[in-house]
Here is the input.
Amino acid sequence: MRLYFTFLLDCFRLSFVGNWQYHTWMAVLTVISLVGLHAYCQQLVHGLATTGMTDQVSWGLYIANFTYLVGLAAAAAMLVIPVYVYRNMHLHDVVIFGELLAVAVIIMCLLFVTVDLGRPDRFLHIFLRFNFPMSMLTWDVIALNGYLLLNLHICGYLLYAAYRGRQPSKAFYVPFVFVAIVWAVSIHTVTAFLYVGLGGRPFWNSAIIAPRFLASAFAAGPAFIILTLQIVRHYTNHQVTDDALLTLRRIVQVALIINIFLLGCELFTEFYTDSAHVASAQYLYFGLHGHDALVPWIWTAVAFGGVATILLILPASRGLKVLNVACVLAIVGIWIEKGMGLIIPAFVPTPLGELVEYIPTLNEILVCVGIWAFGLLLYTIFVRISVPVLSGEMTWRAESREDTKGGVTLSTATA
Here is the structure.
């Protein structure tokens, strides 16, 4: 146990070690996080009146980001499945970066839920009245926190084994890996069921929502990891092969095609039948009675998704420049589609027929940007720690009690 706390202490020290670019990046993220914290304090004092949400539109930018990030966390499974199920060794050395991303993103999800509550003490209602298994919200709490614990254990154990210079015992992490694969699918499915189960919001009452969530998640997540791995390869000595990036490219390509197909199926159902439930879709894509705030956003998302899919189908996307452009377009397009394009239209019009548009306030945007900055800060620290540990640059040696790395003394680690 003492050695484990020493490992944590050395990781803490290592997180402060880096060149000027690393320190500048961390300083910028810290400042943005503090600005977001200040904005949240304003909200905590004055209530949700500081946001653009109203009685008519009770979910906004917070839940939109939450929905997107749940998918980003679930996408870690798309690194794990090829390695542990299909024995794809191209991704073996980079799979932990996907699991570390899942840890950082789930923490961001919990933060977005917290700020959306308005009063954090409302969490007590979930635990005092644990309405299981009837409440989908209770299912979501279990799914998110369980997935967080699973990935914390897997990443922590693998890093600790590398720190001690030992081969990790498969009995201590492989069973948890397979449980995490199933759990990754469940967290996004349960999140989809949260929306689908609300009968008063017909825009969400579709059985295709859960498959669409998974398809878009398995496109945006690997796309984000592709960009991350290139940064890791550029700024560290960790080896990331082009084969690993191209394997992820194929995953993004297939997932984007499936996502576009499912979106087309949903649009056909909405507009061809021309039922009474088409009003929300009409508002989103074409505007409704002069209200069209989301129309340019959703068509931008459709254009980004379409262009990204075409680029990934073309052989030119085997080059990293084209691949990076496609990944950025996919990430931004899916964020718009799964965020504002999914959450807001369900509230417009209301069940009473009111047309009240939602526009986020500056304070609300600052809170969101602060949480994103904090999540990137955590992920940067996780990657900064894991690369030296996995490469053997920071390991435990009982015979050497004081070594230094980058000017910081690691009392029990050697470089």
In short: Residues 21 and 179 are 38 Å apart (CA to CA). The longest helix spans residues 242-273.
